[in-house]
């Protein structure tokens, strides 16, 4: 299977020409991008980036969108200063690169961010969303972090947590029907396992005709045929957060 040898052979997609409305801050040992809504709020969303890192304009665009919807959005550098993956890198070296960036080993950074949100921003309710690598990280956090209220995993690499389904918090899983990296049989298996083991609310949704990264790496003006699904994915994500935060 292609995704066994190249677990995330993802194309960076349509890079947004977007500057961001938030600011970069230092939170203890990590840098983070923070965007706040116009009105004060006690709700926040941690945004977990994909392999292309915390500075990708596309990810900041989504963080700003969350702020527009009333949330403090924070996108920390979960690679902690290590280089993000570049489209020009050799995929043959991807496995070695990934070994030092484990989506299941971000707990220390998450604790630091949670403390910052509570102490510096007065936040009481916190959710998390993540894309691809970050989607796998969301599943990890939903399995073990008691301080988060809900999560949205967008095309999170399922194989990373294939045997773990006892989620602590309501979780929404977004997948594309034509995702080369996450075959539909893996999504079906995830649904079966959740049905058997999960005691909290969850939803698994597959968007017709969509490829990996469609919610944040596709520009709707370049892909008019995908626009309804890009918009639907973003709306579903916001609705889920609104429901549980």
TrEMBL record:
This is Carboxymethylenebutenolidase homolog. The keyword Transmembrane helix does not apply. It comes from Struthidea cinerea. Coiled coil: none annotated. Belongs to the dienelactone hydrolase family. Transmembrane segments: none annotated. GO terms for cellular component: cytosol. Residues 30-245 form the Dienelactone hydrolase domain. Gene3D superfamilies: alpha/beta hydrolase. It comes from the Eukaryota. PANTHER family: CARBOXYMETHYLENEBUTENOLIDASE HOMOLOG. It is found in: Cytoplasm, Cytosol. Pfam families: DLH. GO terms for molecular function: hydrolase activity.
